[in-house]
Amino acid sequence: MTGKNIIWLASYPKSGNTWFRAFLSALRNGGKVDINNIATSGIFSSKTTFETVCDTDADELTRREAQTQNREVYRYLSGQHPEKIFIKVHDAFICDDDGIPLIPEDATHCAVYFVRNPLDVAISFANHNNRSVDHAIHKYLNNPECTLAKRPVDSQFPQPLLSWSGHVESWLRRPQFPVHMVRYEDMLADTFTVFSELVRKMGLTHTDDEIRAAIAASSFDALRRQEAEKGFREKNPESPRFFNTGTAGRWKKVLTQEQADSIKEHHGVIMQDVGYTIHKNTGSAGAGKKD
Fold it and tell me: How far is it, in rounded angstroms, from Cα 285 to Cα 281?
């Protein structure tokens, strides 16, 4: 029996998803969080979850078979949990060859969609991959055919991202279930108000004191300290750290004018749609390295 209790924690990478998952973990664990044991229910692209539920070697399936069965995996998991379950997803909201969404809408309660200014995403993505900002912009943000883990790896299926704009549009315009968009910049500016509102929209019941304790436990400094002390298993092995600066607006000092203009040219319409102002004559002429 399928429930409607999955809450998708959806985002283009490096947009605040991990921070909010850490907050949820602290909220559900008395104000404590272990970054290597975050109390949410995994990621949509997990081959481990797929193989556990299906008792099938995912590598023996075709792309179409895997997509179809993965949708059934999350219908099954929804029916097995009496309470809401939180699933991270970086995949764009797309359909299979038959026009059926890969995300099972009939098993979904709602989604929270985290969006971040792509000018800052480019810098954070460069750090995540330990590559240049130009690489992040042209291989990822501006690439409408971008896929994470394009070659299947042991733990995850390929994750179609599309371009940054394509990803945002896919989640904000296509699902037939409620999608609550939140901007990373607003999360930084007024964490308690934004997180409290999301807790309410997700149908959770927690006191203000519980929310404040969870926010403190999942602060950027707290998460960065944990990573420094014991590492973070979600970090790209090629990156020096996962939790880097956790700020907004660094692009003004880091991106070159050409880099900033390229992002604005490709994504300016959607940036404005989600509330980002397109500034003129910004960008640092001597910058552009990973940060």
Answer: 11
- 158-198 pLDDT, tens digit per residue, is 999 999 999 999 999 999 999 999 999 999 999 999 999 99
Q: What pLDDT does 210 receive? A: 96
Given CATH 2.40.30.30, say whether it is the number of domain 6-117+144-237.
no
Give yes or no for a contact between 274 and 168, defined as CB atoms under 8 angstroms apart: yes
SS3 288: coil
First to last CA, the chain: 47
DSSP 181: E
Structure tokens at 290: 């990973």
Amino acid at the residue 38: I
Please state whether beta strands 159-160 and 147-148 pair in parallel, antiparallel, or not at all (unpaired).
antiparallel
CB-based contact 188:198 (threshold 8 Å): no
Residue type at position 139: K
Give the DSSP letter of residue 140: I
Residue 112 is classified by DSSP as E
Domain extents in the chain:
6-117+144-237
In this prediction, residues 202-226 reach a mean pLDDT of: 91
